[in-house]
Amino acid sequence: METLMAIFTIFTQPQLLLLVGVGTFAGIYIGAIPGLSVTMAVSILISFTFSWDVYPAISLMVGIYMGGVYGGSRTAILLNIPGAPSAIATAMDGYPMAQKGEAGQAIGVTTVMSFFGGLIGIFVLAVAAPFVADFAITFQPRDYMLLAVLGILLVGSLSSGSLVKGIFAGALGIAIGAVGRDPLTFTERFTFDLRLMEGGISFIAVMIGMFGVSEALQQLQNVNMKAVRQKIDRIMPSFGTVKKYLPLSLQTSSIGVIIGALPGTGGDIAALMAYDHAKRITKKPKVPFGKGAMEGLVAPETANNAAVGGAFIPMMTLGIPGDAVTAIMIGALFIHGLNPGPMLMVDQPDMFWFIVGALLMANVFMLIFGLTGIKIFTKIVEMPRSVIIPLILLLSIVGAYAVNNSITDVYWMLGFGVFGYFMRHYGYPLGPVILGVILSRLLDDNWRRAIISEREDLGSFFEGIITSPLSLTLFIAVILIFVSQTSIWTFAKNRLFGKAS
Amino acid sequence: MDPEFRGDIDHHDGTSDATPGGYTEQRRPGELSFAIFLTLASLFLLYTAYGISGFKALSSPGSVPMATTLVMVVSALIVTIRTSRLNKVAHETLSKDILPVMVILFIGFLVIFGLLLKPLGFVLTAALFLIIAIKVLARKGWGYTLTVALVSLVVIWIIFRVVFTVLLPVGILPEAEFIQFFRNLMSGGAS
């Protein structure tokens, strides 16, 4: 009970409350301004807040995360440019609504529904995480290893690109994470006998490069894109409208929480899945989908905000990130000397409840800021890209430099930025790389622990997997992801379901 | 709006992990070379990983690196083969869509930024970078460029140097004296 009170830490310290508020406010704009993304912002922020205490740093980042996921919807509706990846589905019906002069209503409904979705996500997090953590204590090293592999594979397979490219990206991430001296035996790995490489590659440099520099370089190609301004009328949605979409929003929130909680998948995938779900179950939409259907707004917006709470579940209980942003949040916790995983919930439960409180507060701030200040908003968002891009690049350099005060990190960041730029162009997902870098240690340590405890015997290792229900489930899930991508699966599916459809 | 439209102007930019960039049915300019490069690089890394500890034991420090680089080699090879079978995108060229002059120019700017950061110091390098970058991108008069660049630099400097207390290379500018001057001014005003 005492630890539960930590939820209220946030309310008793005005400074923290202020930081959550500032974070949420900044997050809404970062999410809304095309070219700035939450992943980018949080990864740059880690390096700036690492001299702070844990609580203020986390407060700020939680606010930015929550605000950013919501903020992307604004530009999606007003300008047809999703400000954040999780708002891609929102643009499909939001922009047509704005074209019909219903932009205000669209923004109002998205805000209230995002709040609703966020609330459900946080509620599930608060209820489920302690149970998952209790359960996670019984996990064997091999289960962690399988979970890490599953997480990396899931990002690749649930996204619409090619799984093979996702697998490559994940493996690359693990390899990057392995660079430097091996923590167990002190053997050099991938150092090419360079002293510079012995300490490994700073994962913050990789993150900022992949999500900051490469995106800014990408944006150089649409510098001159002109935005169209929309008229905005009343924003507060009527009670009737909210009530009408409540059943749908409950379903899509559940989709959001579950997709968010799966290791490796986050708000963007949740939003697209919820959109598809809404399309399937809404038999007679008042306005057809893609032409401004309210259902097409409600579904992705509830789902992506619910996914925030969901994504914190595997992050806090297993130390396995739910998506790219939580991967970076884990990085932030590492830097502040915390070790996310089941032991965090046992040793420092107040940390967990503090984060729940911060999320809750960020959600409330999101509702407040979301329903006000639209006029200024449209002005700021029209900031020209010719100014934003140089600023992002500048911040990226400062961010990469600030962590270790080293120019080498700046060059690593540039290298990964250029590399990530090509990966984006050729359809390689970047999420698995970051997940791989973060999970590399966990995967490596647990594999070696598992195989040493089986006395280097692969046979008894697999016997262990088959006899433990949990390991077996995870193992089958990993296999299924592979099989689902091969032609055998398509063939079998056609044989089984082909006649019905 | 096309319901298949996802993301930015050409929806191949890969801002999201739910919809990575690229085309699924076609090959973009340079995509095959990139895939071949990845395959060769992975092979080299596999060779390096083998050098860590060879096949000594399953729990040796080289086992996970070897497994991951093997996965890299195999997946890069599959990607290369698949890519080579696809038709090229008709209307795209390497210099227009993948690596325009502007991108190369900016990569160059960033490299120079890194080189100058230590000797010149953060403030001067950043000012130089912002002025040139905004001038090149916005193509507006010097008045606009200088105002925007310097105002944003001052804001960034205040936020990071004062609020976040990030240490940045000082270089040739007497930055510390400047801060001290301000502090004196403030304390002088207060007393």
From TrEMBL, chain A:
The keyword Lyase does not apply. Residues 17-435 form the DUF112 domain. It comes from the Bacteria. The chain crosses the membrane at residues 16-36, 42-65, 77-95, 107-132, 144-161, 196-214, 320-339, 351-374, 386-403, 423-443, 464-483. Keywords: Membrane, Transmembrane, Transmembrane helix. Pfam families: TctA. InterPro entries: DUF112_TM. This is C4-dicarboxylate ABC transporter permease. It comes from Paramylibacter kogurei.
UniProtKB/TrEMBL annotation, chain B:
Residues 1-23 are annotated as: Disordered. Keywords: Membrane, Transmembrane, Transmembrane helix. The keyword ATP-binding does not apply. It comes from the Bacteria. The chain crosses the membrane at residues 32-52, 64-86, 98-116, 122-138, 150-172. Residues 34-169 form the DUF1468 domain. It holds the Pfam family TctB. Residues 1-15 have a biased composition (Basic and acidic residues). InterPro entries: DUF1468. This is DUF1468 domain-containing protein. It comes from Paramylibacter kogurei.
